[in-house]
Amino acid sequence: MISYLLVAAGGAAGSVARYGFALAVARLTGPGFPFGTVIINIVGSFVIGWFAEFTAAYGRHPAGEPTRALVMAGLCGGFTTFSAFSLQTIDLLRGGETLRAIANVGLSVVLCLAATALGMRLAQA
User: Fold this and answer.
1) Pick from 114, 113, 3, 121: which is nearest to 54 by CA?
2) Is residue 17's pLDDT more than 90?
3) Coil, strand or helix: which one is 63?
4) Exposed site from 34, 57, 64, 121, fewest CB < 10 Å?
5) Could you give the number of structural domains in the chain?
């Protein structure tokens, strides 16, 4: 039961952080491209990769399931925005912005995979 409460708390914190960060980035870059979502997904991918490796049973600082649930399922799950990414990509396509939609998919997928791998690599170092 405690893990569920920790996931809920982490999810709330991650969602609030995502909302604020996305608004701040949109104010800086304008509404033409979802840079905030791309950056959020990269950062979230890095954090989940780093934390998963760092706190694994074989990692440098093994952590129990409640701690891992708080950060990985809760905080990262609330912070990363794959559903927003999907909606924004469809909106770009519907608006005739095919190249921007392709850029959004390419940047998000490639950079998030790279960020996850980098986080894991740094946790191993």
Assistant:
1) 121
2) yes
3) coil
4) 57
5) 1
